[in-house]
Design goal:
Structural class: alpha/beta
CATH superfamily: Carbon-nitrogen hydrolase
CATH architecture: 4-Layer Sandwich
Number of strands: 14
Strand order of the largest sheet: 5-4-3-2-1-14
Strand content: 25-35%
CATH class: Alpha Beta
Distance between the termini: 39 Å
CATH topology: Nitrilase/N-carbamoyl-D-aminoacid amidohydrolase
Number of helices: 5
Length: 259
């Protein structure tokens, strides 16, 4: 499977991060890609806080050019792909945030997204202030909107991004198994509402407070699950049919009625 003029190959890396250990987590993610190298020009996506797990220990947040950013850059240039992954990051002003970075195939960073809705039931907002801007990036001719985990529960965030007509929404997460049915239902709803593909990349394994059972998904604009990674570490892949998407939007222009 490979990227074509009609579509984009997406690859979600469903992994079990090593708690607060960026080097070990990066090695696990690299092993999954090395075992099944992604096609050149594809989009490779990692979960939320993929180097540390969903930690509130801001002491392990990385600074500019830290190990997670270097990992994304190295893998992008090694395989000739776009990479995207969630990280706990500290700015030069020592402000910590839950963010996602996007790197192009040269390895250069091209976009940063700050999670707009910190998970307040878990105390996240006390450690990582939320952002207030959507992030849309052009990837191999595809307009992609970027989101993180708890953002998924707020359809207004996706609607705001939908005004710019992304063809793909990406959600990186550390979503626990106790609410996995919500994960599936909300990913499908966001695809149907916004007439777009949705790639949800979740982690697996245990952290100090939760178990995660994956089910990273690719959902098509009709709300059908076209790929499911199941509950073990591995990859979820699909080729996005942009011709079919354009035809669907033309025949049923629901987005034109946004107010």
């Amino acid at each position: 499977m490979k990227t074509t003029t009609n579509g984009l190959q997406v690859v979600g890396v469903q992994m079990d991060p090593v708690w607060e250990d960026a080097a070990a987590s990066g090695a696990r993610a690299a092993a999954l890609l090395d075992a099944a190298p992604p096609p050149r020009g594809s989009l490779v996506v990692l979960p939320e806080m993929f180097t540390t797990g969903f930690t509130m220990n801001t002491a392990v947040a990385e600074g500019p050019g830290g190990p997670g950013e270097r990992w994304l850059s190295t893998m992008a240039s090694r395989y000739g792909v776009w990479t995207m992954g969630g990280l706990a990051r500290r700015s030069e002003e020592a402000v910590c945030a839950n963010e996602a970075l996007v790197c192009e195939p040269s390895g250069a960073r091209v976009a940063v997204y700050r999670k707009q809705r910190p998970f307040t039931p878990g105390g996240e907002a006390q450690y990582y202030p939320g952002g207030d801007q959507e992030c849309l990036v052009e990837i191999a001719g595809v307009r992609v909107a970027v989101f993180l985990c708890y953002d998924l529960r707020f359809p207004e965030l996706f609607r705001r991004a939908a005004r710019q007509r992304p063809q793909l929404f990406v959600v990186m997460a550390s979503w626990p198994d106790t609410r996995i049915q919500h994960w599936t239902a909300l990913l499908r709803a966001r695809a149907i509402e916004n007439q777009a593909y949705v790639l949800g990349v979740n982690r697996v394994g245990d952290d100090p407070t939760h178990r995660h059972n994956g089910h990273s998904l690719v959902v098509n604009p009709w709300g059908d699950v076209v790929a499911d990674a199941g509950e073990a570490p591995g990859l979820v892949t699909a080729n996005l049919d942009l011709v079919a998407l354009a035809s669907y939007r033309d025949k049923l222009p629901f987005l034109a009625d946004l107010r």
